[in-house]
Every structure is written in structure tokens, then in C-alpha cells.
Amino acid sequence: xxxxxxxxxxxxxxxxxxxxxxxxxxxxxxxxxxxxxxxxxxxxxxxxxxxxxxxxxxxxxxxxxxxxxxxxxxxxxxxxxxxxxxxxxxxxxxxxxxxxxxxxxxxxxxxxxxxxxxxxxxxxxxxxxxxxxxxxxxxxxxxxxxxxxxxxxxxxxxxxxxxxxxxxxxxxxxxxxxxxxxxxxxxxxxxxxxxxxxxxxxxxxxxxxxxxxxxxxxxxxxxxxxxxxxxxxxxxxxxxxxxxxxxxxxxxxxxxxxxxxxxxxxxxxxxxxxxxxxxxxxxxxxxxxxxxxxx
Amino acid sequence: xxxxxxxxxxxxxxxxxxxxxxxxxxxxxxxxxxxxxxxxxxxxxxxxxxxxxxxxxxxxxxxxxxxxxxxxxxxxxxxxxxxxxxxxxxxxxxxxxxxxxxxxxxxxxxxxxxxxxxxxxxxxxxxxxxxxxxxxxxxxxxxxxxxxxxxxxxxxxxxxxxxxxxxxxxxxxxxxxxxxxxxxxxxxxxxxxxxxxxxxxxxxxxxxxxxxxxxxxxxxxxxxxxxxxxxxxxxxxxxxxxxxxxxxxxxxxxxxxxxxxxxxxxxxxxxxxxxxxxxxxxxxxxxxxxxxxxxxxxxxxxxxxxxxxxxxxxxxxxxxxxxxxxxxxxxxxxxxxxxxxxxxxxxxxxxxxxxxxxxxxxxxxxxxxxxxx
Lengths: 295, 373
Description:
The complex is a heterodimer of chains A (295) and B (373). Chain A is mostly helical and 295 residues long. Chain A has helices at residues 6-34, 38-42, 54-64, 67-98, 104-113, 123-131, 135-145, 159-167, 171-182, 185-193, 198-209, 211-226, 230-235, 244-251, 261-291. Chain A has a single domain (6-291), classed as MetI-like (MetI-like fold). The longest helix of chain B has 18 residues, at 166-183.
């Protein structure tokens, strides 16, 4: 029920304003702090007005944390996660929704269960797998033939290792599944009558129709991939594969060093920019894809 | 052009059987309408012809070729769906031409054929629009164009008019009929609307509960329904049906306390049997009170061209169509005359029609009034 009374209106506006301040506050601190000198940023009380040091601080942060490589690595990783996830979810959901097989429910539940096992929960076994991919094969050979072979392949310090474990989860699959379920069965039947096979139907009809879903998932997954911290921290030892989130740590002032928070904040500002851009560009579709049903 | 033969076709989902051995043959170029209430299996049968449903048992043959295991695209059928099933992201032209695109027809040829087909269904000016920007009738035309462009041997229509409003339905019905005359491809049209069925069909198939009840020309089925189901399903309002026993000694059928005069042929053939008698509302005649069989008017429906009296007759309500010059009001006592030659008689147990060789004049307008009660 929607009621309109002046008091209720005023109350909601106050609540909204408070929420807005809560959200925007940290950003204001970052923007202001990133543009100040060391003295200014450490002054009490904190001055919320931006000053003129922004570019200098950014350059300093960029250099100190080697952000060039880190940004490139993070970008590659986030793109791979996004692309892999979007493609994999679209195909998985397609097979779950449009094919009638006897084991459909088994597959569905196998996919569903991965939702309950986020990377943080299975990080140790996942690391074990990534560190020694051929272990099961080696064991199998040893068990069958009794011969111990030395086959080794690991994904540590590689882009594949950074992105693959993040791709193999079910979140996107469900977004797609919900969308596919809204497509009428007759659409698939009409395509069959028109002579199109499942692959053709997927590319000609299903994919174009799921454009908004795809863009929504792209937004979510890019931000998700960009923000990964735990996994890269575990598996990257080679500095050439460092990601931005790891570099952020390098920007924190050391305990006895200069408290140059202005450089730290400028660095975070740089690191925040790419996901912010992606969200800004895609947010129109993002909302539409999540509320679905553009018909 | 293709003929279709359906032999002992069955369909079951798990243990539930929905079609129990259907045998039908459709000649090349025929317009066949399959009519039945919802859930009778008519759509399933159509979808089995199309190849969208597996065939549990029996054979379907199109143009002399058993198609049981063929993919839909190999059967030479085109289908028009109830909700049109247009591709929402494609323009009208792309929708119409999609089958050709899949088949790898070169772009230039595709374009000419799209334009030509769109002209046939009157969509020439809408080629670049999306389906969302079209009205219901136009979407229906796109769906038809999409079927026509493939030049199929068989057209399948799955209740294509049920989403349209009443006026448009009449127009599209006429257009489908015209289109059939022009293309003369074998057409199978599924509907639950008896008016559509009567007006469109060369051959009418009436189905009920997974069985074929009757096959024939629409008028034959109307005049000689093979069972009580067909009798009550076809015709609006439906045929009046009542249980009766044929008197062994007089040319009468007894229904409760009423005695209904019947023809001598019927009396002779069925003496002493329990039957179901039927008569169409338009064959009943209304007489002044005291004449014919007594009935009391329950309510009157005005149709404009005439009116339908619903009257309590024995323990049931009878419908009788009467001309506009007879006025009756609820509560009036009237007499009903049921011309013996117009009575249909069915076996009480099986519901099947019992044929009695009547004297001539079965389908002619009734002249004689009811014989004395």
C-alpha cells in the first residue's frame, strides 16, 4: 500500500539522505585525501575539500606499486573471468533448460551445489588442484601399471590459474536459466520447424534475446574478477602476475615510515576506476537484465 | 502437395496414454480440421505429424514416406503456432526468411521470395518492423508468411486464431481459406471452435479423450452425428439429449412421464430398447400451451436473428430456437413439438448412433407438426 503524507515523505527523504552520506562519505575521503599533501592529509580535523596534489600523488602511487603491470594483470584476469563466465553460464543454462535428458535433474543439482561452495570455502583443495593438475592421472597410472611417472603441470603463476577457478561456479548459470525459462517453448519449436538445429538456435535466437542478461552478468563478473584478493594472493608468487588488489597492500605506509596516506588514497582511486567505468557504461542494461523480461 | 496417412498412432507420457490408436488418411490438397475439447489429444496429434513429439506407437506417413524418425525439417511441414512464436529480435523480413537463411538460400533470392510472400499475406509495408510493433492480426500474418515461404507440402495450424478478437478471427478465417485455395497444400488445422471447424473444413475429424469420434464432411457430421459426444459438441446451442425407452406397442418413446411420438420405422427397429434421443434446438417447434408436449419457459436468449427458448421439459431443460414473431416470457407454459423425422437416436450404453432407415425427408424442413400425444 502506498500512502502519501508529508511526515512520511520527510522521514523517507531524511533516511535516504543519511544512506547517501553513508555511501558517499568514504568516496569523499578518498577524493579529498588523494589530492592533498602529506601534511594536509594528516591534519586534524580532516579537511574534506580537494586540493591540487591529485596528479602528483597518482604518479607517485603508480610508480611505487608498479601499478602498470598490476592493472594490466587485473584487467586480463577480470576480462577472462567475465568472458569465461558469460560463455560458460549461457551454454550450461541452455543445456539445462532446452534439452530433455533423463539426467537433467542430476546435472542441475551438480551445478546448483557449486553455489554453496564459493572459492573461499574450497580454497585449499582448489589450490591443491591448481598446483598439481596431473596428480589424479599419475595416481591412476601408478595404480593400473605400477609405474610412477613424473608428469607435472600446474597453473600457479598463470592467467589460466588466476581465472579458471573463478569461472567454475553457478551464479551466472542461474541468471541465464531464469531468463531462458521465460522464453516460450514455441520459439524453440518454431526454430525446429524452420530447420534450425540446437547450435544455430542458440546463436541466432537465444543469444541475441539474452543480450541484457549477458550485459548484467558482464558487469557483475568484471567487478567480481577485479576485486579478487584471496585467490591471487595464494597462487601468485611471481611479481609479474601481481594484481591490483595485491599492489594495494604495497601502498599502505609501513609502521615506521612516512604516513603518506595521500599516495595510498590516490592509488586506490586509480584501482577503483576501471570497475567504476564498467558499471557506469553498463548500468542501464544491468538493471534491465536483472529485472528481466524485455518482450 | 502431400497426402498423410496415420496408422494406429498412439502416444503416452510415461503410463498415461493420451492417444489410443488413431487411424486417419488425409488426401493431398485437403483442408482437414481436427476438432475437440481441450485435452482430447488433437494438438498432440498435430505435433506428432510435425515431428515435435515422439510417436509412441504406430506410423505416420507423409507422401508415401514413413516419417516417424525424421526431424521436423525433413518432413516438409510448416507450422503456425497459437501464440505465433515469432522471433522477437528479428524484423518481419528476417522472421519470414529465417527458414531460407537456415537452408542457405542466397541473399538476393531470399529477398525476392520474402517480398513476394509478404505481398501475398498483405505485409508488404511492414517488412522492417519488429513483431512487437505489430497488431495481433499482423503477427498472425507474419506467422503464416513464415510457413508459406518454405512452400511446404503440408501446413499445420495449431489453434492459430484463438488469440485474436472475434472480428479479426472471422477475417483471418476467410483469409486462411482463400490462401488454401490459392496454394492448395494439404492443411491440418486444429481447433476447439466449432464455427471455425464447420467453415474451414473439407474434412472434419472430431476427437474426444484420445479417440477419433467421427470423420466426415462438416455437414454430414452435423446432420448425422455418430455419437452423443459429437451430437452435443457440434451445434450451438448443443443438441438436446434425453434418455428414453422405445415403447414396444406404440410408435412412442417414453421419457419420464412424457410420450414422444417417433417414426414407425424407429418404433419397429428399436422396440423395447433403452436409448438416448436427441434433437437439435432449431428442429424443435414451439406450439401454444395445450398442444404438443408440455414445457415451461425457464429463460429466453435473444440472438437478434431469432431467439432461443430454454424450457423445463420433464426434469431437464430443453433449448428450442424460435423465430422472432413468437413471443414467450419466463414462466409461460408452452407446447413443444419434436418432429419424429428429426430425432436422432443413440445407444444408451455406448452412446453410438443407431441408424434407422427413415422415410425420405430427413434433412428437409419439417412440415408435419407433432402427431397427437
